[in-house]
Amino acid sequence: MAVLAVDIGTSTLKAAVADLDRGLVATYSEEVPIERPEPEAAEHNPRVLWEVFQRVVRGVLAQAGEGLEVEALAFSGYLFGLIPLDRRGEPLSGVMTWLDRRPARIMPKLLEVVRPRELYERTGCPPLSIYQLAKLLWMKIEKPELYDSARLLLDAKGYVLLNLAGEAVMDLSSASGSQLLHSRRLHWDYELLESLGLDPSKLPPLKRSTEIVGEVSRDIAEKLQLPRGTPIVTGVFDGAAVTVGEGALGSGIASSHLSTSTMLRVTSSEPIVDASDEMRFQTYYLFDGIWLPGGAVNSAGVVLRWFRDQMGQLERIVGEATGMSPYELLSREAERAPPGSGGLLFLPYISGERFPSFGNQASGVLFGLKEHHTRAHVVRSMMEGVVFNLKIVGEALRENGLPFSEVRVTGGGARSRLWLQMIADILEVPVKAAVSCDAALWGTSLIAWKSLGVISDVKRVAEERFEPEVVVHPDEGSAAVYRESYRRFRRLLDAARQLFIEFSA
């Protein structure tokens, strides 16, 4: 039985036709441009998003060819998006993405009304400006006419679903990452909203992630070249789909997706928050009583992309001549430096970071540079710095009773054997990586089959179908070096945090 899975990402919209026996039969993707209509803004044009969605669906169906009839259409999508719509469902602005920095301006006002710890414990989300709560309050304060005109507030996935099914909905999984949902009661936090003067009637009805919310109409079916009446499944947020696709739903298994950004998540049977005042991780909901405690790292592959663009002319030239990826060439160069990068440390916060106390002010730092250091040391220290940040999340999870003995990794960064070995050595657990599998699309497909009743136990099927292509184990010698490097990394971070705040004032 074939299904069509769609993943709406911040930079790319992709889709796959999946068959339960054959896996992902065809995939297709297209970039979604970020628009910046004013300083600090980062939006998706909703009409462009809808057009890209239609092209991608037609493209993947053409690649799949004849012989596979799509039985359902299911979604995953990026978190933290917000778009206001009028009473007819027409967009009043662009979709604010998580890259939009304007809401940071109102965080002091928000935290005057709601204490940071209370906000965290109610919603499972640390006090950060990336969430829809801050975006909504920013809109009310700085764009009051826009706020007053809005009759409906959706995220990017919800906007596409509205166009497809004519129903305004948000799945519980995505809502749990909005800071608008009470994490234990799993309904909109009306008390929180009213304390901030926000109107909860603008929010859409909540649906289970496996719920069928409608069918593809005749007109839309003709445009998309889909069968009329194809069921539409609400789905989950992209990180949740990755966790499902990696089969990382069992106890003691952590999930990571190493791409532009990265994350580390485990599962729990209740919403668990960090007992520390640092609030180092969040807890989002999946489905069927499963929560996903974990933390994201803003800057992962983006640091290598920055190095490639600014200092990697040689890698670009060689890559074009040989067909090799510049990232593979950089990874090979980093192998020439020893674990610990000869004492060189890198704080990889070139995109800021999700630390509640100073994340918006954080920036990249290369520390300890001496004349004997080479490009190899620099590149390796950048890669190590990313994994040290994953270790911060991993330590927080373990300290809060959420241990793990294995990490599963997908994403473009999983192509680097060196990076996988770093994860194993620094987190001191085995790493299993699936390079060729698009975990988000496969996880979304599994959710579609659950919705159709084709499979009842997603956890079992996801675990059985995960096939690691690379397995690496910790090297004790390297792990010992990294324990000391990590200690120094944490000291550097502690020393830098006050300077981040002071120098950004």
TrEMBL record:
Gene3D superfamilies tied to this protein: 3.30.420.40
GO biological process: carbohydrate metabolic process
Every Carbohydrate kinase FGGY C-terminal domain range: 260-448
Record's keyword annotation contains Transferase: yes
Keyword NADP carried by entry: no
UniProt-recorded Gene Ontology molecular function terms: kinase activity; phosphotransferase activity, alcohol group as acceptor
Record's keyword terms, sorted: Kinase, Transferase
Pfam families: FGGY_C (PF02782), FGGY_N (PF00370)
Domain Carbohydrate kinase FGGY N-terminal: 3-245
Similarity comment: Belongs to the FGGY kinase family.
Name of the protein this chain belongs to: Carbohydrate kinase, FGGY
Taxonomic source organism: Thermofilum pendens
